[in-house]
Automatic annotation (TrEMBL):
Name this protein carries in UniProt: NAD(P)/FAD-dependent oxidoreductase
Xref: Pfam families: NAD_binding_8
Gene3D superfamilies named in the record: FAD/NAD(P)-binding domain
PANTHER family: DEHYDROGENASE-RELATED, PHYTOENE DEHYDROGENASE
Length: 477
């Protein structure tokens, strides 16, 4: 019998395996797909010679993550940090979020620039403390109370900017609202505002990085770390129930629903019911493009941005996001990543890859490629003529590609205030599933979505402490 079985080889599962293996335990990882990485995979599709990120392509949280630092990812992966972290297109106007916050304020100018720098400045100055606080469970006693207080005040101010004063500070509000809309659903509440504030602050901290070679580089680095300490990784192996596993402990890098099904008969009934009925955010429809040239943006400066937001004013973005909950929007809020602008290994010579996505109703089969193409065309006349390939992945197909993305939900469950705390249960040790040896370590557990590996990093430490009394995994070997 092995010590630890990890079900799922996304970044969280691989981080969990690395921590457990470094603590001296015998670890085996089981992945249903034929390759590791989960939502951090990079592959060729449908015979294309280009390399596409199947999930996330740009990685702000990887740069801020304690897990990525302590597990050696920052040393093993070449992270490219664009000069412009992200840009937001408002009709024929553009607002730029440079990595340099001061420059961002200067280029916004006037009241917009002053508002934006006043809102983000305190967070950027304490970005490491803020990251340490937010990339941990919200119920944990904060190691940096000042950073938490600064973040709380900023969240209140951000809610006001996005919801009440966006007309007065149009470009500043649009930059901020675009970050908040990475969390699907268009909520006007504090969780959405706080997530947007944190994401915007990272743009001016360590930046929104693009890993050379694609997101797969992050997953490969985590796998390399785990295997260096003896962990075994098996791909193409689907686990149907934990009774198949001869393991003292099972760590789930899966959806909460799958963890409950795989543990059927082993979990408390109330917890199992809650996990099987996880509240979900809207899904996403994603399009992978191969172009014959870089995106022909009307505003050429957009070519220097790793990420481009399309969707208009803050009010328009919020309306489009709320519409996406029940029906697709004809003019959706969109996120466009253009990694080959910074990494020429991603496409054949002279060609470029971008991916673009918008939010749609959960589990939607709707193909939004026409709406996505039309919106990019408005900001980049001639875009349609540059398309060599377009590979569409609907919300339904996202789940088929990665079963952890239930209904195409990229968030692991709704990220409102309740969903941020009850994940999957309200506890100071939320990874433990109230049954000996069973732990949830995916984005369905704290600290939630994004490629940071912290769910696995913290969940594995919870397991080590509870099951083995190990409180310092780095000192075991």
């Amino acid at each position: 019998m092995i010590d630890v079985a990890v079900v799922g080889a996304g970044p969280n599962g691989l981080a969990a395996a690395a921590v457990a293996a470094r603590a001296g335990l015998e670890v085996t990882v089981y992945e249903a797909n034929d390759s590791i990485g989960g939502a951090a995979r990079t592959q060729m599709l449908n015979g294309s010679q280009a390399k596409f990120d199947l999930g996330s392509a740009v990685h702000p949280m990887a740069m801020q993550s304690q897990a990525m630092h302590e597990l050696g990812v920052h040393d093993k992966v070449d992270f490219i940090v664009p000069e412009i972290s992200f840009a937001h297109v408002l009709d024929r106007r553009t607002a730029y979020a440079y990595k340099d916050l001061e420059r961002t304020g200067e280029e916004l100018g006037g009241a917009d620039g002053e508002m934006y720098t006043r809102l983000l400045g305190p967070l950027v100055n304490q970005i490491d403390g803020v990251s340490q606080t937010l990339l941990n469970p919200l119920l944990k006693v904060p190691s940096n109370p000042l950073a938490l207080a600064t973040f709380a005040l900023g969240t209140v101010a951000g809610m006001g900017l996005k919801n009440l004063f966006s007309g007065k500070f149009e470009r500043a509000a649009a930059l901020y609202a675009g970050c908040a809309a990475h969390v699907a659903g268009g909520s006007r509440g504090p969780a959405n505002a706080g997530a947007g504030l944190f994401l915007a602050a990272t743009a001016h901290g360590k930046g929104w990085a693009i890993p050379r070679g694609g997101s797969q580089a992050i997953s490969n680095a985590l796998a390399e770390e785990a295997m260096a300490y003896g962990a075994k990784i098996h791909t193409g192996v689907r686990i149907n129930h934990i009774d198949e596993l001869s393991a003292q402990n099972v760590l789930f890098d899966t959806s909460a629903e799958d963890a409950a099904k795989l543990s059927n008969g082993h979990l408390p009934a109330q917890l199992s019911h809650a996990m099987l009925n996880t509240r979900r955010s809207p899904g996403s429809c994603l399009v992978h493009y191969v172009l014959s040239e870089p995106v022909p943006w009307r505003d050429a400066t957009l070519g220097k941005a790793g990420t481009v937001h399309l969707g208009g004013t803050a009010l328009q973005v919020g309306k489009a996001e709320r519409t996406a909950i029940r029906r697709g929007s004809a003019k959706p809020y969109m996120i466009v990543a253009q990694p080959s602008q910074f990494d020429n290994s991603r496409a054949p010579r002279g060609q470029h890859v971008i991916w673009a996505y918008c939010h749609v109703p959960l589990d939607s089969p709707v193909d939004m490629s026409r709406e996505i193409k039309d919106m990019i065309e408005q900001a980049a006349p001639g875009f349609s003529d540059a398309i060599l390939e377009a590979h569409v992945v609907t919300a339904k197909e996202l789940e088929a590609q990665n079963s952890a993305l239930v209904g195409g939900d990229l968030s692991g469950g709704t990220m409102d205030l309740l969903g941020s705390i009850k994940r999957p249960r309200i506890s100071t040790d939320p990874w433990y599933l109230q049954s000996k040896g069973l732990y949830l370590v995916s984005s369905a557990a704290p600290p939630g979505p994004s490629v940071h590996g912290m769910g696995g990093f913290l969940g594995a430490q919870s397991m080590l402490k509870r099951e083995y009394g190990i409180t310092n995994w780095k000192s075991v070997n």
